[in-house]
Amino acid sequence: MTNSEKTSCLCGAVQITAEKINPKFTVCHCQSCRTWGGAPFFAVQCGTKVEIDGSDKVKEYDSSAWASRGFCTECGTHLFFKFKESGEYNMPVGMFPNLKGMEMDMQYFSDLRPSYYCFTNKTKEMTTTEIMKMFASKM
Ligand SMILES: [Zn+2]
Ligand SMILES: [Zn+2]
Questions:
Q1: What integer pLDDT is reported at residue 2 of this predicted model?
Q2: Nearest-angstrom CA–CA distance, 80 and 46
Q3: For the CA atoms of the chain, what is the radius of gyration?
Q4: What element of type H or E holds 128?
Q5: How does strand 50-53 pair with strand 41-47?
Q6: How many C-beta atoms lie closer than 10 Å to residue 79's C-beta?
Q7: pLDDT computed for residue 137 by the predictor
Q8: Distance from the CA of 74 to the center of ligand 1, in angstroms?
Q9: Residue 122 has pLDDT above 80, yes or no
């Protein structure tokens, strides 16, 4: 099952339509994500079928060798984490209020998760070492 949904940033300058939202969302505990959002990043995978209206109000920050992070220049809403090579979007799950059948599927960088929170959801987990291995095998 996939969801399709239209949404916008807080101020409405950026309108987003994501046609294929994977209901299995991921959580990233890495320090970049926690610095960016103040908490782990809850992300839905939206693939490349994403339409952005008002892209002149979107600033893309080049956050690593493999991805960039986009936000609205008017209101600061975090819009996406985008893989450079594939062009695939990961977007904040909270931006889409009407998603159905959502399931927390994976926690990335589980070894970087601080001791002051934990989730009771039963999920898969990957550590930094496992993620680096996965990246290496893809190159
Ligand atoms: Zn905005
Ligand atoms: Zn992260």
A1: 80
A2: 10
A3: 15
A4: helix 128-138
A5: unpaired
A6: 26
A7: 79
A8: 5
A9: yes
Domains delineated in the chain: 3-138 (2.170.150.70)
Distance 57 CA to ligand 2 centre (A): 24
Ligand lying nearest the CA atom of residue 14: 1
Q: How far, in Å, from the CA of 41 to the mean position of ligand 1?
A: 19
Pick from 106, 32, 35: nearest CA to 64: 32
| Secondary structure (3-state) at 93 | helix
Residues 98, 65: Cα–Cα separation, whole Å = 33
Q: Who has greater pLDDT, 137 or 97?
A: 97
Q: pLDDT tier at 77 (50, 70, 90 boundaries)?
A: very high
Query: Nearest ligand to the C-alpha of residue 53?
Result: 1
The predicted model scores a pTM of: 0.93
